Automatic annotation (TrEMBL):
Substrate binds at R52, G53, A54, R89, Q201, N252, K253. The keyword Amino-acid biosynthesis applies. HAMAP family: Salvage_MtnA. The gene is mtnA. GO terms for molecular function: S-methyl-5-thioribose-1-phosphate isomerase activity. Catalyzes the interconversion of methylthioribose-1-phosphate (MTR-1-P) into methylthioribulose-1-phosphate (MTRu-1-P). Also catalyzes the interconversion of 5-deoxyribose 1-phosphate and 5-deoxyribulose 1-phosphate. Part of a bifunctional DHAP-shunt salvage pathway for SAM by-products. The active site is at D242. This is Methylthioribose-1-phosphate isomerase. Belongs to the EIF-2B alpha/beta/delta subunits family. MtnA subfamily. Keywords: Amino-acid biosynthesis, Isomerase, Methionine biosynthesis. PANTHER family: METHYLTHIORIBOSE-1-PHOSPHATE ISOMERASE. It catalyses: 5-(methylsulfanyl)-alpha-D-ribose 1-phosphate = 5-(methylsulfanyl)-D-ribulose 1-phosphate; 5-deoxy-alpha-D-ribose 1-phosphate = 5-deoxy-D-ribulose 1-phosphate. It comes from Methylosinus sporium. One of its GO terms (biological process) is L-methionine salvage from methylthioadenosine. The keyword Lyase does not apply.
Amino acid sequence: MRIDSRHYRTIWENADGSVEAIDQTSLPHRFETKRLASLDDAVAAIATMVVRGAPLIGVTGAYGLALAAAADPGDEAIEEAHSRLAAARPTAVNLRWALDRMRRLLLSAAPSDRRALAFAEAAAIADDDALCCESIGDHGAALICAAAAEHPGRPVNILTHCNAGWLAAVDWGTALAPIYKAARDGIDLHVWVDETRPRNQGASLTAFELSGEGIPHTVIADNTGGHLMQHGLVDLCIVGSDRTTRIGDVCNKIGTYLKALAAHDNGVPFYVALPSSTIDWAMRDGVAEIPIEQRDASEVTHISGLADNGAVTRVRVTPKGSPAANYAFDVTPARLVGALISERGVCAASEAGLRGLFPDLA
């Protein structure tokens, strides 16, 4: 997608065998990239959210395993790298999916062939993700077009939560891909952008992306969505997913469940966009089974922003000594999800719906 009219992917391989990724901790105030030259670099990038978003975490994990194989192609080193990368972020299933795909390939090959195979496979996973997200965009854009037909003469108002755009993937994204496709098809639309506390991925990353694409949008406080829905100012919601169970329960950024409840109460369609790599076919009950990452309390007690003098500053927003809890995700039960948008089409948020689209995976 575009930054200052130039196309970027979020991650790419350098000619010297290292990997480069957009540093998302610097956005939106500074555009910087981070060079990943080792397994340690890849683990740190995932854990500290230099890269984030389920699809991109998976691709970064694949490149991390390639960097590990370049340093030591032995079985023991690959297994250790697999374990370290898998532990970097526990909730998103894409990471383990990509790592398992890489490990199967590498352990079946001669050690002397593993470096070249690893980088080729990581690049293939990245390319697959970009194509998958573009297809999600095509299928989801049809839903936006249908909403436009129901509300002629005004923009389609879409609410999203967190960042599930191209910064969360390799390109296009998941929840934002339908918006990009619909906008490029000439559909008049406007996006309500939840700020998404505590890390503000909506206010910083989604707004940054939409600005780059020239798409009308408004940043709102997280608790505004229900009010907008009550007053007919939201036509549909689209969010992403970090893990989806086989029956259609969806795990996404904390606060998603509350938006789904508000949408259900107000008859607003609530859609979830996801690649098939996000489906955990071994899980049924998302609330009971999905591990919810708890991050450092400082993400709640402190906030970063751009000061009037142009410096990026971090300040405390809570009293000293007040404890804080930082649950990173919540689970939206399938009954609150209007439909799932995947690379193979749109289906009901149910086991039958997912099996219908993915009989080969289920």
